[in-house]
Design a protein that fits this description.
five-stranded parallel β-sheet; 4 helices; 15 strands; transferase; Serine O-acetyltransferase; EC 2.3.1.30; acyltransferase
Length: 191
């Protein structure tokens, strides 16, 4: 549950605390995901596993039907996940999401159509705007920003900003500028 504590710490850093934090439906959805992910990956002893799977089933159905949050327990999601608003978030079981990512509502991270295998792999600190769709076996670099209502079907480099349908890179991360080597002072004798 270390990743869950990172999620809570991220919400606290955004100004959420006390009752506001624990009554936030996005926290409920993340809690249900983390519980399901633990349950399916840790595979506890059968006498514990069966009742926990029943509890998880009802919690997951509440998350999917009532809150419209489908965070598949088989997806790999790093700590520090921040979901600003609930509703319409769907994450494929094969998706991999890095640490400290922001996901807005109405976002789909899924597989391509026509039975093609693979789901997106996101780096750390990726921002995904409202209504964005990421599909297929693609890689989104760390620090990338995906604008609202963008369709991403190809790889995105680190730090790039993507917008449109289909998504196009509208801004790239600034390149590191090397500091110029200090000029060697020339000594001249002016006589």
């Amino acid at each position: 549950m270390n990743k869950f504590s990172e999620d809570i710490a991220r919400y606290r850093s955004m100004g959420h605390s006390g009752k506001q934090l624990w009554l936030n439906p996005a926290i409920w959805a993340i809690t249900i995901y983390r519980f399901g992910n633990w349950l399916y990956s840790a595979n506890p002893f059968v006498l514990i596993r069966i009742p926990l799977k029943i509890v998880y089933f009802f919690a997951y159905m509440f998350s999917e039907v009532v809150m419209e949050m489908c965070l598949d327990p088989q997806a790999t999601i790093g700590g520090g996940l921040y979901i600003a608003h609930i509703g319409g978030v769907h994450i494929n079981p094969q998706a991999i999401i890095g640490s400290n990512c922001d996901i807005a509502h109405r976002v789909t991270i899924g597989a391509s159509a026509m039975g093609r295998k693979g789901a997106p792999v996101l780096g750390d600190r990726v921002y995904i705007g409202t209504g964005a769709t990421l599909v297929g076996k693609i890689k989104v670099g760390s620090g990338a920003k995906i604008a609202a209502n963008t369709l991403v079907m190809s790889n995105i480099p680190d730090g790039a900003t993507v917008m449109g349908v289909p998504g196009r890179i509208i801004m790239r991360a600034p390149k590191a500028v090397e500091s110029p080597a200090p000029a060697v002072a020339e000594t001249t004798d002016a006589k």
